[in-house]
Write a structure and sequence with these properties.
By secondary structure, this protein is mostly beta strands. The strands form two sheets. Strands 2, 4, 5, 6, 9, 10 and 11 form a seven-stranded mixed beta sheet that branches. The radius of gyration is 14 Å and the shape is elongated. It starts with a strand and ends with a strand.
């Protein structure tokens, strides 16, 4: 059983910064890609950024130049540094990971989410 736990959400003013963290725990052989997604009220969940085990990153257009995703393979963690936050960034942010489990294969795991609210 694998769990992802996010932390770091909160209330910030427009233009401010916030750093989200996500830690994976449980029966893990390794973790392939990890990512951050977000969901605003009344909207579908959308990709924010992803990062492969080797460090290749991918960002949504709205995040490019403002957000930075990083990971620590030894700690099984992924972080999202968010700068120049805008009210449109307000959403619940979810951590995602492709977890490799021996004799099972890769499974997709989601965290419970952490709320980010950006005021104007």
């Amino acid at each position: 059983q694998v769990q992802l736990v996010e932390s770091g959400g909160g209330l910030v003013q427009a233009g401010g910064s916030l750093r989200l963290s996500c830690a994976a725990s449980g029966i893990i052989s390794s973790i392939d890609a990890m990512g951050w997604y977000r969901q605003a009220p009344g909207k579908q969940r959308e990709l924010v950024a992803t990062i492969t085990r080797g460090g290749t990153t991918n960002y949504a257009d709205s995040a490019k130049g403002r957000f930075t995703i990083s990971r620590d393979n030894a700690e099984n963690t992924v972080a999202l540094q968010m700068n120049s936050l805008k009210p449109g960034d307000t959403a619940v942010y979810y951590c995602n990971a492709g977890v490799v489990r021996r004799l099972i294969g890769t499974i997709e795991v989601w965290g419970q989410g952490t709320l980010v609210t950006v005021s104007s």
